[in-house]
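Quick start: what a row looks like.
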Amino acid sequence: MGQEIARSHFTAADFQRFHGRLVEETDLLVRDTAAGRFADSRFIVGFELEAWLLDHAGLPNPVNATLLERLNDPLVVPELSRFNVELNGPPEPMRSGVLNALEQGLARTWNQCQQAAHGMDTALAMIGILPNIRAGDLTLANMSAMKRYRVLNEQVLKQRQGAPLHIHIQGEESLERHLPDVMLEAATTSFQIHLQVPFARAARYYNAALIACAPLLGMSGNSPLLFGKRLWRETRIPLFEQSVELGGYAGLADTNVRRVGFGQGYVRDSLLELFRENLDLFPILLPMPLDEPASRYPHLRQHNGSIWRWVRPLVGFDPLGAAHVRLEQRIFPSGPTVPDMVANCACHFGLNRALAEMPEAPEGRLPFAAARANFYAAARDGLDADLLWLDGEHHSAREFWPRIGLPLAEQGLRDFGLESAEIERHLGVVAARVRNGQTGAVWQLARLNRRGGEADEAGVAEMLADYLENQRSGAPVHEWSV
């Protein structure tokens, strides 16, 4: 959700002071890394899951404040809207048993949330875009009561000089809307995966994560519908980019610079290049002065939290104060089930490791423009996406996984120290999903087709009810019948 702020009104002097501290902390980060402060060589993983709160009709229920009060759990926190919450996983060392630990932890927190919600006549759902979301649900009246979100909305509109946000998504059908605020972002719920990496290897892991985005997204889409329109297999990608569309200091004039997007290119030597980009390219949105010492980089971290790269670098600290960097993989949608999401984790961790540790850096074999084009093709077409790979050949995402992706992911997980049974169990979920071609997005569309294909209110409600029943069963999506 990002760090809460104490004020919601700021002057030009506040922006100037914040910028000065941001410059100071960016320079300090450079010096500290050169001095070896980021010496943590461990690989550690974690996650954030954004979920929906629904009433008995399957419609958004804006009661997150009451649910959070009942839970009183630091791992469950607010999200942008009152009908969303975020579930967090505690950090887990990357070692044998880690995938099973993630699955057990997520299932435990999920069940606790469901039990608390049940007492409020509410249910939780994990799905990238709620297919029956209505424009009337996405208003400022349903924004969570956090100053951070109010200020972000005001600053986005201010930097757009009051121009409404323009949503235009061309998929199987076309959707075009003009919006007065950022609340449509609340329709895009995700499963964000964190991988802490040694600083000396972080550039390679970042570039590898970018290359892996397309095949990972192709096999995990779960957001094909919005406002009754069939759009992309992972409509969440263009919707998030457009719902908070901002450029850099040149506004929207420079089409290569966006606060939400795939980025400007691979890094050459260090993740420090991305934090320098943050300073040089992007105006400040949240100028709240913070009391933490500069050695904790509070202003740098807050500014970085308002720039939404699909693979985002993060600076953090362990409980003893040791500094580290981690990569936040933001491409995955929420759902369909806990086993599906942990299987996605397995593929991400394994593929990222295998690519990053190749003797010949894969970013030298696949131009950044190709990795970016692959990414949007996968978001649009899912398993049918045509992807250019390191071998110079084109593969559909569906062909990629059994031939290339799963062997690489298995190799990477073995290199992380995982044992065969754990690897086979979780990668097997993706192998079966790809084999029968049924992602969450494919299932949703097939289920609509069963009653004639119309994405009208009744058809979507019926499909969502079946989706939630299957989700409660815990069976991965490839096992769901249409």
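That is the whole record. The two ends are 35 Å apart (CA to CA). The CA atoms of residues 80 and 144 lie 6 Å apart.
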